[in-house]
Each structure stands twice: as C-alpha cells, then as structure tokens.
Amino acid sequence: MGYPHEPHPKETLILSKHFGDAGARSYDGWVKCGGYQALKRALAMDPADVIEIVKESGLRGRGGAGFPTGLKWSFMPKERRKPHYLCCNADESEPGTFKDREIMRWTPHALIEGCAIAQHAIQAEVCYIYIRGEFTEPIAIMQAALDEAYREGVLGGNAMGTNRRIDMYIHRGAGAYICGEETALMNSIEGRRGNPRIRPPFPAQQGVFGMPTTINNVETLVSVLPVLNEGAEWYKDLSLGNPKSTGTKLFSVCGHVRKPGNYEVTMGFPLGELVNDLCGGMRDGRTLKACIPGGSSVPILNREETEACLLDYEGCVEQGTMLGSGGVIVFDDSADMVYQIMRLARFYAHESCAQCTQCREGTAWTVRILERILRGEGEMKDLDLLLDLSEQMTGKTICVLSDSCAAPIVSGIKKFRDEFEAYITGAKQPVAALT
Amino acid sequence: MTERQDVVTLTIDGVEVSAPKGMTVLEAAKRAGVVIPHYCYHPGLPVAGVCRMCLVHVENTPKLQIACAIPVADGMVVNPYHDEAVEARRGVLEFLLINHPLDCPICDQAGECELQNYVFREGRARTRYSPTYAKRFNPVEDFGGDILYVPNRCILCTRCVQFMEHVADDPVLNVSDRGDRAFIGIHPGEQLEHAWSGNVVDLCPVGSLISKDFLHKARAWELDKAPGVCTGCSQGCNVVLETLHNTVVRLRPRTNLEVNRFFMCDHGRLDYRWLNRGDRIEAPLVRQDGDLAAVDWHHALERAADIVKGSGGPIVVLASARASNEALFLATRVAGERFVGAFRVERVDGEEPLPGVPNLALRSERAPNVRGATELGYTETFDAAVTALADAAAVIVVDEPLDTVSNAALAKVPSVIYMGTTLPEPARVAQVVLPITNVAEEDGTFVNRDGRVQRYLQAKTGPGMARPAWWVLGELLVELGRGEPLATAGEAFEMLAGAVRAFDGISYDGLGYLGAVLGTAAKAEATA
Ligand SMILES: Cc1cc2nc3c(=O)[nH]c(=O)nc-3n(C[C@H](O)[C@H](O)[C@H](O)COP(=O)(O)O)c2cc1C
Ligand code: SF4
Ligand code: SF4
Ligand code: FES
Prior knowledge:
Distance between the termini of chain B: 15 Å
Strand order of the largest sheet of chain B: 15-14-22-21-20-16-17
Largest sheet of chain A: 5 strands, mixed
Shape of chain B: elongated
CATH topology of the largest domain in chain A: Rossmann fold
Order of helices and strands of chain A: HHHHEHHEHEHEHHEEEHEEHEHEHHHHH
Structural class of chain A: alpha/beta
CATH class of the largest domain in chain B: Alpha Beta
Number of helices of chain A: 18
Mean pLDDT of chain B: 95
Oligomer: heterodimer
Shape of chain A: globular
Largest interface: A-B, 31 and 36 residues
Radius of gyration of chain A: 22 Å
CATH topology of the largest domain in chain B: Rossmann fold
CATH superfamily of the largest domain in chain A: NADH-ubiquinone oxidoreductase 51kDa subunit
Bound molecules: flavin mononucleotide, iron/sulfur cluster, FE2/S2 (inorganic) cluster
Number of strands of chain A: 11
Low-confidence stretches of chain A: none
Radius of gyration of chain B: 27 Å
C-alpha cells in the first residue's frame, strides 16, 4: 500500500491531503488532522443553517450529475414526520473512476464526518453507505472506522455528546453498475433487484423504504468538511473558472499517461495541463489522441478539445462533453477508437438493467454492429444506423445508462469517423479475435 | 361528486378534454378518443414505466414524456403524434422486434397481439437488424397451472411480474438476468399455482404467456364473442364467451370495475366444457305407453299444463342456482300458490381471494345465482325437499342435474315435469321432459352475492328444439291461461321486476353490461 504519487505543486490538496498517510486513518489520527471539528460546528447549528452554508458554497454533486448539494438537501421535508434517510453512494463503478475508493481507503473518518453532517442537515438518523462489493479493502477500512466512531461516541445514541442519534451502516453492493444509479441503489438497499425507479416520486419525497431520502456521492460528502471548516466564501474562492463550479475536484486519470492516478485540482483547471503536466504526458514517442474527461459515460474529446477544455461543469459543456464523475480516460495515437468504443458499449450492454426497451435492446445491438465493423464486415450505412440508434437511446429512458452508451458512440463517429471507415473499406485489417 | 377545482382541462391531439387531477395522460387520452400505444401499462396494475412505448410530446417540456406515468395538468398540450414521439415509438417497436421470432403463423396471440397491432400501426416496414445476427433464444418453459412461457416472444413489459407480485400477492415471477439476456424467471421450485394466475395470459400483450388449454385451438380472428357472467361461483365475474363454430373454446374476463375489475379465477376460466356437452335433449318428450317419446312443443306444453292444472297439493320446484332469474321467477308463477321452491349449491371450504382487488374471490358457493334464487323465494332445503317428495302433488325440475337424487325419490311423485339440458337417470320417470338451453345459449340475468343483477347474452345456438327455460315457462303460463307469450328475456325480466319487490326500480335495459345492485335504484329515488 501507499499512495502512488507525490503531490504535484499545481494540485490543491484538500480532500486528498492525507492520501498516503496511514496515520490519518484512525480516529485519533483523524482528530489530530483536525478531524471532527466540522461535525462539531454543524451539530451546534440549526440544520437549516447548515444547508444554507452548503448552498452558499456552491458545492455541486460529484457523483456525475453535478446537482447543487445544498439545494438537494433543502428538498427534504423541513419537519421530520417520518424517518429520513441519507444514502452515501460509494458504488463507484463508472469505468475510469477511482476517487471514492481512495477517500475511503485513506480518510474513512472524513466520510463518516461528512455523512454525519449531512444527516444532521437533513435530519436523518440513519445513513446507509452503499459500497461496491469488489472494494474489499475499503469496506474493511470503513467498517473498522465505523466501529471506532461508535466506540468514541461520534455515532450512536448520544452522538458527539449531543444526546441525538446518528447511525451508519455499510451495505455491500453485489457487482452491478446500475446500483450506483440513486434509485436503483435504494431498491438494492431494500433487498430488491437494482432497477432504477421512475420519477416522480423523487427520493426526497419517497426514497429508501418509501421515506424521504437524500443520496450523495462520497466525494460530495467529504467536500462538506472544508466548507464548514473554512467557510462558504473560502470554498467558492477556490474556483479558477466559472463561479458556478466551486471548490476542488478529484480527477482519476487513467490510460496512456505516464503517471496515472488521482489528482486534486481546483474547478476550472485546464484538462490539457492535468494530462500533459501533472500526469507527465504520453509515453515516449506518443501523442495525445483523445480523452474522456468525466468517466466512460460522457462524450469523447479529440486532442484539440482536450487541450482547450477547462475542468469544471461549464467548461466541459463548452467542449461538448460533461464533467461527470471526473474519471479521465486518456488515449494516445496507438489507440483504436473503434475497438475502445466497442468495449465501452459492451460494458453498457452487459450492465443494462433491462427495464427500458431502448437500453436493453439498443445497447446490445450497437455492440453487434461495432463488432461487425471491427471484423471487417461493416457497411457504410452501419454508421448512420449507429447514429440513429444512439438518437433513439438518448433522453427516452428511465435512467441515463442508455444515454451513456450512446454518448461515446455519437462523439466517436463524429470525431474519428475515418477510423470506422477504414475498417469498412478494408483500408485497415480486421481485428482477428475480438476480446 | 368532483369539485370544480379537482378537474383540469388539457389538450390531447388537438382535442380538449377534462380530467380529474391525478389521472394519467394515457387515461385522459382515452377520453379524447386517443389510444396512446402502450405495453407495460395496464389499468389493473401499478405503473411500471419500463417499455417506453407511450412516449408523447408535451409542449414546453424538453424531453418526451411517458403518458402512462405523467399526471394531467391544467393547460397541458399533449401531442401523441408529434414527429419526435412517433419516431421514438417506431424506435421502440424496432427494438422489440430485433429479438422477436416473428412466428405469428403459429402463435396463439396472433390477431389479438399488441405487438402486431402497434407495428402495423406505427412500425417500420423493414428491420435494420442484420439477418446475420443471432436472435436471443430460450426454450419454452412450463410455468405450471395452465401456463406456458415462450421467452422468445417476450417483450419484458413485466405485466406478469407486476400482477403476481402486487395483485396476486404471490411473487413467484421475476425478471432474471440483465441486458438483452433478460427473461421472465420463475422462482426455483415454484409454479404458477395461485388460483388467479391464469390472468397473466390475458395481461401478456404478446404471445409469450399462453394457455395450455387454448394452445393451437383457434385463430383469434375466427372467434365469436358474447358477454357473459361466470357460473363458477357467486362472485359473478363478468366474462366473454368465445366460440368457434358454435363451440365455446375460451372464457376471458370482461372488465367490470365493480365486480372483478379485469380478472377472473382459473376455476371459472376453465369451467366451460360442460357448455359444449353433446348428450343433450333435443326435443320435448312425453310419456306414451310407458316410454318417453319425442313430440312437438305444443303437445308437450299441453301435457305439462294438464299436470299443473290437475294436481292438488304442493308443487315442488327443484331448481338449480345456475338457472336464470327469469326461469326461476316464471317457475314460481307456474306453481302459483302451491309453490314450494328448493335449490342446492355446492359449498367448498374456504375462498380464494385475489388480494389486490377488494371484495374479489373465488367464493365457496359454487353457483352464480344463489342470491337470485333466494330473493325469488327458493330456499336451500334441497335434501329436505327431496325427502318430503311423497307429499308433493307434482315436481317441476328446473335445470337441476339431480346428481344427488336417487331414482326412487322422484318415482314417488305422481307427476314430474323435467326441464333440463341432459337427461340424467332419475329424470327418466318424468311425464314430460322439456329441453332447455344452457347459459351459453340464452339471454338472462343472475344476481351475484352482493346483490348485483347482471345480464348474460347468448353466445351460441342451442341444440335441436331446446329453448330458454324462461320461454318454456312463459309458454306454459300461456297454456295455463295465465299469461301472454314472452318474446325476450327482457320481457320476462320486466315481468319479474314488476312483481318482486326486491327488484324494484331495476330495468333490463338499465342493466347494461355492468349490472345494477338490488335496492339501490329504490334508494336513489327515495333520496332524490
Ligand atoms: C448508471 C448510473 C450509475 C451511477 N453510478 C454512480 C456511482 O457509482 N457513484 C455515484 O456517486 N453516483 C453514481 N451515479 C449518479 C447517481 O445517480 C446520483 O446522481 C449521485 O449519487 C448523486 O450524488 P451527488 O449529488 O452527490 O453527486 C450513477 C448514475 C447512473 C445513471
Ligand atoms: S436506461 Fe437502461 S439501465 Fe437505465 S433504467 Fe432503463 S434499462 Fe435500466
Ligand atoms: S411474459 Fe408477457 S406479460 Fe410477462 S413480461 Fe413478457 S411480454 Fe410482458
Ligand atoms: S406504457 Fe408507458 S412506459 Fe410502458
């Protein structure tokens, strides 16, 4: 174990400050790092005031959709007439994303603290931390930290000596990507098949067990700590770019860079700099070809777009993509984009929950077409068909898994059409064995 | 009554409609005469919202919306035929067909298949799915009960799963696996054994869940249909009798929100073969020289009238609780003041409720007209009446099968008029045998256990000279000089309603297809 890279001077270490420091893992260690101060502050405040500060800070969800966190919390009923719940989304299954894992591995108490603050703000006694089952090490670390937090009186019937109850439970996922979608996650916690639910009702009205529920990503919840410790203004001022994107963000960079890993930069940081500078650029003799900046579900950027892209919600939209979860997948000029896109489509075809017709059938059909092209059996009209199917798969289903399958296909054909055509015309050798 | 503010006005396909708040756009569209294509939606099931077939365009909304789930709102403008919506549904249809075997020529659903219907209406003429791609294949599975699952035809609308889980409260079906590998699974070791599970066959919009009983029996378009009432128990579920070449081949539930909603139980559904019995009495018979001989109606009715006129003392009517109100009533008229009426009904232990629908169960009383017989003066004293037959001057049997009656019992009575569909052994002592039609062969009414008077209509022709019991008894009254000929079941009913207080205020035409409850018409008048 140990953290793979030394902090880069251009990083802004707030969430990842203690990554690599095993000492911060324990309760005592966390307290020494200034831990549980934010929770103390929050518990001394009225829940509505906590929500107000988080609103002020401009913090937006880090799970993918970028929804303003304070606003989301404010949707919960003001008075608790029924049990309220918090679900912490630690399912982290989006290909290319591995930031929540590091938060849980290195600073489990930060997550507990963030959850407890959110629970206070939304008046939820119970929080379920839904962790993907393959995360055996993070689960063990989180469980040990939870046990400690109960022992130390952070959690339980007299949480932090306030005579109030704060409980947290870990729920292990069983390996389905779709269970990271918030309503599927709630079904999964209830012991049902992990199918997304149609909305309305929204989780704040009827969530887990039919009760008012808020779902937040791991990184969102730990980002609340600096907001409370340093203040909303301070947090907002961290932003380099658009004022609607505030604070810092962890980017998990993978693919053809010299130094893959998690990098924490302020919102608005240039993507080109992250890839070429912080991550050490491409391997010898290679050049940047493409990049998916927000986890596998967002449109692909070509080289120019990558170099022009600012890493915040608006900057990504400007380049025709999305910030998503911050999983940056980098391709150099050796990458076969047709093959890469086929592999992505296969993932979605495998993971579709099968409820919506377009997604169930469309994801699998696109895989067949892409495989056929790669085998050298494709026709030009297959490209139009792929685009048309993608259109059918976008904006018409219960959740956006279907859209997520379409996004790389549409952007891929638009930006790397020559690679598709090379397989179709025979200019490029077919792939002998499709793995 | 709905308050003014609980009603909203919206426009659907250019038609302005009013609908109560909370109603879905799909239901409101029906009021505008627009059927928005749909698969997973069914008014008897919770909204699943999965098939995405009902996508419509709503003005000032960025995305297409599913009509089955969105509630109506004031001023909403819904366009089901907006280009985007039509294109989206065409897309869904194409997706649904890529793995579909297109085996319509051997599929029982063909002709009443929602996939065929909507593809015909809105689908592409040709698929763009390459013929070189393999289609999903899974073998046919026996789900138990009357049900086969043909997974290759399944569109995964989940209606069947929803029904078993939320309506039958017996969640044995599930969606198994994910992506395009998904299929409907049945829990290991379980079967569709619920008393109401046959409904999944009707609910399935395609030919994926099919009835073993109906398997390859008929093409849907060859069937003639008539509205009826199930005779399986006193619940009185509304049904459709489907016939092929004058043979009942299938019973299906007919929607009546007050009685059975959209459902019927398997006991009732499969209880139809007796309607097709071949051993029927086809001509009136009278005893001549010790034997029963075929005669014409006039001759038989004269003999029957003689018996009624000639006898002093009680006339015992042994009636079936499956006989129509009209027949039961007219039999009391024929017997007049000397009437003693008894019936028998099979009672089993326990009911089989359908938990998702209030007040719906396969009832322990296994006859449709117990309440009607009771209201008309018959008592459930069949065995006592049979034992006391020695005191009777005459017996009129109305459709009672005499299963529990010994040959000797009727032989003790001086005169027996037997009205039935078949001629069981004990009935062979009768002086007069009058062939009647069964419930599928006549019009008439029953009263269900909750006092609902319900009409059933003729679905097939009766054999030979058999006539509805109400007609026969009406003619007998004419022969006795105590009535005018009756032309229809409706006239018989009006006569009944004019004479029997419990039926006050109920008219045959007013019954419509959904019936009316005894006592409510009079009450409504009193409060008016
Ligand atoms: C198919 C799918 C998978 C998702 N997986 C995750 C996930 O693994 N982790 C996560 O935090 N959010 C995931 N999301 C997003 C969640 O639905 C939800 O938006 C998020 O947890 C909300 O938290 P936030 O507001 O703090 O970002 C997923 C969404 C979809 C549609
Ligand atoms: S879009 Fe796909 S994954 Fe999402 S609910 Fe529909 S079928 Fe399931
Ligand atoms: S078997 Fe029929 S009802 Fe069930 S999911 Fe398939 S198509 Fe729908
Ligand atoms: S009928 Fe509306 S989604 Fe299926």
